[in-house]
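Task: encode each sequence below as structure tokens.

Item 1
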Amino acid sequence: MGKNTYGYIRVSTREQNEDRQLVAMREMDVPEKNLFTDRQSGRDFERPQYKRLVRRLRAGDLLYIKSIDRLGRDYGEILEQWRVLTREKGVDICVLDMPLLDTRRGKDLMGTFLSDIVLQVLSFVAENERSNIRQRQAEGIAAAKARGVKFGRPPRPVTEDFLKACTDWKDKKMTLRQAARFCAMPVTTFYEKAVQFEQSD
């Protein structure tokens, strides 16, 4: 039975475009039926197409990935998946953006050793960059808050109907349910807003 060539493509969101990865796979002559694409985060390997791909892979098959971060973003999990694919399943992996990560080259002990070192370094870099992005986002949000930037939707202005309903409810001329219905609000929403309004008064 002949060995098969596969390609794995991942984009983080449905809005992102996988064309660049697709072009790379076609240049490697990966058959369309052997392309597996996930449109979700790389934080773990609970991805339907990746799981289907792993079930299909057999010893001696070749798997192409555009870059190491397309496989995943968690350092430990990338290393574990690499081990499962190359050692347990006997699959060859070629990372197109990093020619050193091609398990077909250097099948001897030195080749495997070098490939493992490069993989560990790249996996660490990918996770470290993700951690740095999160930190920069948190710092940006904190700095914006310090400057007085408000996040979320602005509060809706208080209407005449709401003022009347609040007053009547406080004066016991309306029940809570009647006041909420008068303002076309759920009871809990009306109650929360009425309390906030009273405290800010």
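Item 2
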Amino acid sequence: MAPEARGIAGATRYVASNGLVALIQRNPSAPTVSVRGEVRVGAVHETAAQNGLAVFTGAALIRGAGERTFQQIVAETEERGCSVNAAGGLHTSGFAGKALVEDLPLILAVLADMLARPAFPPHEVEKLRGQFLTSLRESEQETGTQAWRAARALLYPPEHPYSRLTSGAIETVQALTREDLVRFHQRYHPAATTVAIVGDVEPEAVIALLESSLGAWPPAGAPPTLDLPPAPPLEAILRRDVPMSGKIQSDIVWAVHGLRRTDPDYYPAMMANMILGRLGIGGRLGENVREEQGMAYYCYSNLDADVGAGPWSAVAGVNPANVERAIEALVHEVANFVEQGPLPQEVADARDYLTGSLVLSLETNDGIAAALLAIERFGLGIDFIERYPVIIGAITADQIVDVARRYLSTERYVLAVAGPPAG
């Protein structure tokens, strides 16, 4: 495939001969450059028995790559005031770097080695495993983490990757071998990779650097595919209590199935979520459940919409003595929102917040890079940034009510509570 270059909303989109996509934006406001990228490989590609493999593999990329050891990577980048990192996630494995413009060649060379030639030294793998296990043991004592672990297990069938946390579990991470990391890394592919480079750079010069670094990553086999199994619809209220002795707080997760980022309902749902549980101190949930009724230390909602339909949830941290009353208040507030819909001022406030936050996010190199990655990942179009205020401004109260009534059921949902045993 011949390299291709064309404009995307002021940026240059370049497709290297190995299939890697680069998005390059010149931003002369600072003498620095940010690199952010993702490979479309993540926990959705691992089995339940190897839960945590994607995150473990992503974290291990920096532990030695090409001819450099972990210590050499750290020393060489820190000496010049640069940084590089990588991490596995649910749908993608990310990588990033920051540097002065003159050090961009070093950053791209190191990242290319990390993605194409990780060494996975056995002693570094074991060090990393120890850190992961320590973190997992700590998370076992976190009521919020355990409530979410239970909620996902209720919301999705066991074979669905959304049914578990990407961090894995103690038993699965203990069982992972270096060979498992090597095999999982073989899914990494340049044609499944996007990198955004933003800073005081000239696109033509960056393209030349890319061709000798990430563009030289040889493709092996076909790029990975993603085939998420369907999640059966909920037919009733499902509840799971996770008793955790010695805790002074209980965490509550209420959740239903949400929607994909590319779903036509996404923008009305995003507005609904902002009004229900994000604006100000937590939208209606924060105002009524936390502030007016004093039922929660925190209370807010979250819409997890990506390439798959994640949970649409409301969460709260409460005094264990108030668990049942807080659940009643939370569900009551969701039901009120579904029945009554938003007030005109709430719609206006949500519009202002969403359009204003986009403007703020584009004030940094990192923010611009993140926006470019999202545009590419979801096929949002070359003029998305310009169209966004129009999209948000066109959402009506009726659309918000309609999407809330179709998704936010108060008769079919999951409920997970983690905290001190009742009584």
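Check on item 2: The mean pLDDT is 95. Residues 17 and 228 are 29 Å apart (CA to CA).
End of task.
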